[in-house]
Amino acid sequence: MSYSTGELAELCGVTVRTVQYYDREGILKPESFSEGGRRLYGEKGLKTLQIICMYKQLGLSLSEIKEVLSDEENCKKILLSVLAEREKALDEEIKQKLSQRDSVKVIKEYLSQGRAMTRNSFFDVQTIMKGKHKQRATYAAMLIAGIVADAVILTCAVLWGVKGWWLPFAIAMPCVVVMLAAVVAVAYRNLAYVCSGCGKKFRPKFREFFFSKHTVKTRKLTCPHCGVKTYHTETYSD
Q1: Alpha-carbon gap, residue 7 to 23, rounded angstroms
Q2: Cα separation of 31 and 42, whole Å?
Q3: What is the pLDDT of residues 90-116, one digit of tens each?
Q4: Is 228 in contact with 196 (CB distance < 8 Å)?
Q5: Do residues 193 and 221 lie in contact, with contact meaning Cβ atoms separated by under 8 Å?
Q6: How far is Cα 124 from Cα 55, in angstroms, rounded to an integer?
Q7: Cβ-count burial of 159 within 10 angstroms (0-12 exposed, 13-18 middle, 19+ buried)?
Q8: Where are the domains positioned within the chain?
C-alpha cells in the first residue's frame, strides 16, 4: 500500500511540512513517485516515520536520530548509547528544576514573613536554602534515631520477656537515652519557629521547646515578640 505525503503525515500525527523536512534532511526518502511526480511512501516509510516520531518524543535531536537510522546493523547499540546520554541530560534537568522549585518556595516564604527583596536578597536566599537543607537533615536524623531506638528497645524487651535476659535491656536503655538526648540537642540548635501571629522567626527556651506539645511541623510555643501562644510553624535556625 502506498501513502501520499499528506496521508503519511495524518497517520503519524504530524504536518506535511514535517514530512517534507525529514525528506530534505535525508532520513525519510519516498519509495516511489506517482505519474504526476508526487512522493509516495510504503509500509517501510510509515514505520520509519513512526520510529522518528517516537525518538522525537524521547527528546532525541535530529542529528542523533540520523545516527541511529544510518546504521541498521548497530542500531540497537547506538540507540542505547544515545538514550543513556539523554537520560543523564534529563536527570540534570530534573535536578535543576527541583532546585528552582525549592528557590521559589523559599522566596515565597521569605516574602510571606514581610521581608522585602533587596540587592542582597540573593545572598539571603542562598542562606535560606542552606538552612532548608539543614532542616531536612535534622528531620532525617530524628527519624533514623527514632527507628533505631524503637528497634533496640523492642529487641531488648523481647529478650527479657522470652529469655529472661535483663542485662541487654539495662545496658541498652542508657545508650538509647543518650542518643535521643543528642538528637534533641541537635534539633533545638537547628530548628526555629515562625510565629502564626506576627510572622517573626524566634527560638524558644530549651525547657519550653522540650516539654511543649507538637505536630510533625509545628510546636505549641509562646512567641517572644507578640506573646501569642499557639502552634507555630517549624523552620530552620539562622
Answers
A1: 15
A2: 7
A3: 899 998 888 888 778 777 776 776 655
A4: yes
A5: yes
A6: 43
A7: middle
A8: 3-70, 78-112, 113-236
In angstroms, the CA 139 to CA 130 distance is 14
pTM across the whole model: 0.49
**Reduced to 3 states, what is the DSSP secondary structure of residue 231?**
strand
DSSP run (H or E) holding 26: none
Q: Which residue has the cell 519509495?
A: 31
Which CATH class for the 3-70 domain? Answer: mainly alpha
Cα(88)–Cα(226) distance, integer angstroms: 50
Place of cell 516564604: 109
What digits encode the pLDDT tens for the residues 37-86? 888 999 989 988 998 998 888 888 888 888 888 877 777 777 788 888 88
All cell numbers assigned to 24: 530534505
